[in-house]
Design brief:
The protein has seven helices and no strands. It is an all-alpha fold.
């Protein structure tokens, strides 16, 4: 049931974004999908971040959408009240996915043919994710090198 809702939200997101809908509508749809990703990290959608990255690897338009989704995953986690056990599971999940997200961001920042919006979204997503680095102050040396 939840997977069907997720799939329908992705289809609606693609449709409204291609129709040049309001950024508020797009952001709310992304928030809905991100919330499903967070609530199902240990059940129905355990590979949500990998799926979002794969979705964003298709074309520039979907890349921008996936970056909004990734940004919203972290911002929703930080802004919502979670039951303690679920909060711990989600935070651990986010920490485990950090490397994949920053590699995706690096692959975007290395390109010189994308729109400014895509680069802006990449930096916004990275900003939300780097705070979950536990191993070192520098979560991904390649990311830091590209930025500075």
């Amino acid at each position: 049931m939840i997977i069907e809702i997720r799939d329908n939200l992705f289809a609606i997101l693609l449709r409204v974004s291609q129709a040049r809908a309001s950024s508020v509508v797009i952001d709310r749809l992304c928030m809905s999908i991100a919330l499903i990703a967070l609530k199902t990290v240990n059940s129905a959608w355990p590979n949500s971040i990998a799926d979002i990255i794969t979705f964003g690897s298709t074309n520039e338009h979907q890349c921008s959408l996936s970056l909004i989704l990734l940004k919203n995953v972290c911002s929703l986690f930080q802004s919502q009240m979670w039951e303690r056990r679920l909060s711990h599971q989600i935070e651990e999940f986010i920490r485990e996915q950090l490397s994949s997200v920053l590699q995706f961001v690096c692959s975007i920042l290395k390109q010189d043919t994308l729109s400014k919006e895509c680069y802006v979204q990449a930096l916004k997503a990275a900003k939300n994710w780097v705070s979950y680095s536990t191993h070192t102050f520098v979560p991904n040396p390649e990311f830091i090198e590209l930025i500075f």
